[in-house]
Amino acid sequence: MKIHAGKPIGNILLTISFLLFVAIIAVAPIKQVLHVINEIPLGENTLKTYIKNTKGKLDEIYSNMLNFTSPPLVNKRTYIEINGSIARLMGQRRMNNVVKLKNEYLIAEWEGVDGIQPKLDTSPYVSGIKQLKEFCESRGIAFLFVQAPVKSCKYDKQLPMGISDFQNENMDEFLSLVRGLGIEALDLRELLHNDGLDHYQAFFKTDVHWTPETGFWAANKIQSYFVNKGILTNKNTVVQNLSNYNIDVYTDIFVGNQARKTGVAFGGIENISLIYPQFDTNIHLSGNEIDKSGSFKDVMFDMSYMARDFEASPYNVYPLYPNQYIHFNNNAAENKKTILFGSDSFGMVCAPFLSLSVENLFFGYATWSDLIRCLNTANPDIVVILFTSVNTWHLQQLADVFKDQSE
């Protein structure tokens, strides 16, 4: 395992944010600052209460401060870090539509795509899965729906007081409906639990996604499902054993999509791993304006996302080619089969490892409009659809594919 160490900037940023806050206050309009200072009561407890109750006044002061400070000193990132520092010092559990769980993991509030969900009627979202399964069945293609977990654990939600989340209840209902239609479904939440793995360590602390290590684990579970069905073989166990892979850990580099809303002082900063085989590989990766061949490491990773930039997501170092199906060709694979793998963004760290088990894998991230064409041209032996949560946006897009076909 290689460690690529970054600077331990989490606590540094907290300190810098506080110093910036003091510096900014120093150049704010004097009358406003004096007005707030004069209202501050004495005593530690009353001071904390005052800050909590009058944070809106500080926001107003900040708006006016923009007219008195230069852009390098005050910008959106600085403001987020200041707010995050105050929220952390005050022990807040909610900030900018992000909730901090009891175990310090961040989870987004419901915004219509992912995050904490209200109770949903999931029945309208089953039709796309049903029609795709029937499409595959009519062509002799094996079909599997994979339910990926969400960060909130079904068996230990870790929710702070006053917060409700029905993601897992919604998934239970959805899977019941799917299986009731005779559709094969793999529930990775239960497999995580049954394997005795720490559910939360399967995810990034500051981001919605699972880690590459979990993506590797999920790829093995999918392969094992088809091995058990007699559709794939697994004579070469090297591919499924993580000890046969290099793991390069980049430390203090990853600020997830939720921590970018709260700042590092509130949310934290973490590591990400690049996982690639120690054994020889020769992969051809092709698609729209993509055509490259080489080792797994050479073709899979876009290292431009590994710059230490808070606005970039290192998660995207794994194959991110939206709006198209990309073709992984691996002639050395044990199984001379073709898989079509449609997914939300969780598939980005799963599909590359699954591609090592089959000769051809077509991976589409949020590419439902092109699904029928790829099914007809790729002639897959297997179709896998993987979603995290009851992802209403993706499920509706999938249903619309078949609606458009019938009109």
What does this structure look like?
By secondary structure, the chain is an alpha/beta fold. The chain has 15 helices and 14 strands. It has helices at 9-27, 30-39, 44-53, 55-65, 76-89, 127-137, 167-180, 188-194, 212-228, 259-262, 264-267, 296-300, 351-354, 371-378, 392-406; strands at 2-4, 94-95, 98-100, 106-108, 142-148, 185-187, 245-254, 270-277, 283-287, 290-294, 325-329, 335-343, 358-365, 382-388. β5 (142-148), α7 and β6 (185-187) form a beta-alpha-beta unit. α1 packs across α5 (76-89) and α6 crosses α15. The N and C termini lie far apart (54 Å).
Instruction: Give the strand line-up of the largest sheet.
Output: 6-5-14-12-13-11-9-10
Sum up the overall morphology in one term: globular
Strand content: 15-25%
What value does the Rg take, in angstroms?
A: 24 Å
Task: Give unreliable regions as ranges.
Answer: 25-44, 60-73
Report the sheet with the most strands, covering strand number, pairing sense and barrel closure.
8 strands, mixed
The H-and-E topology, N to C, reads as: EHHHHHEEEHEHEHHEHHEEEHEEHEHEH
Q: What would the average pLDDT be, to the nearest integer?
A: 84
Q: Write down how many β-strands occur, each being a DSSP E stretch of 2 or more residues.
A: 14
Head-to-tail CA distance between termini: 54 Å
**How does the helix and strand content classify structurally?**
alpha/beta
- The level of helicity is 25-40%
Supply the number of helical segments.
15
